[in-house]
Amino acid sequence: MTNIQASGSPNSELNNGIEQIAEIVRESSYVVGMTGAGMSVESGIPPFRGVDGLWTKYGAPKMDGYSQFKKDPTGWWNRRTNEKIDDHIIELRDALATAEPHAGHYALAELEKIGSIRSLVTQNIDALDEKAGLENLIEIHGNRTKLRCIECGDRESLGDFVPLFAPDPCKKCDGLVKFDTVMFGEPIPSDVMASARAEIDKADCVLAIGTSATVRPASGLLWIAEASGATIIEINPTETKLTSICKVSLRSTAGEALPMLLQSLSA
Ligand SMILES: [Zn+2]
User: Fold this and answer.
1) What is the structure's pLDDT at 1?
2) pTM > 0.90: yes or no
């Protein structure tokens, strides 16, 4: 494993790390990107975990959100409308409302266009990957700008419209409709999990960006990839649980490293 400490060191170390990653990507036949909260943090969206995390600030929420929602969907929507919701949700919602993709998101979209990565599996719900132009996108925890039927999985894009009241039942199956964002205690939708697993099974290289690799089941995909022989590369400002299984672990942000990687792979 190469552990490259880019922060605070001469630029040549960062450049070397980028060149090592570019070489591995060039030699791989199917590279899948995987992003976590660190990617969103660079767009000003606070994470849940860690020193500046929302849960550190406000305390961890109850982990039974999904069962509470299913028990009383109308009550859930009413609490939301009346702002009787957790402070950490309000802070998150305000940040999401104004967040824009950063240079790292746009570089990933370009890396997909030139074929350097084939798909992106993201744990983020902010819809910024989609906004940046990524096409083969698997949003494992859902997308906050969509509604989803919990019975048949049918999804509807909201655009900028944010519903304040409980949406009508599903047009296709009359099932209960909720935000696509996966709640605590809610299983990852089976179609999404299957797509993510299929991408990981095809990958001979996974580029893990801004993920602490601690949230299951998404993080488990990285160990599945490693166990099946894929090369794991990490781009993260700090060491993570993943670092020990990475071929290259680059200490850098997505906004700094990904445009450089794109430049190298476009040359
Ligand atoms: Zn349905």
Assistant:
1) 61
2) yes
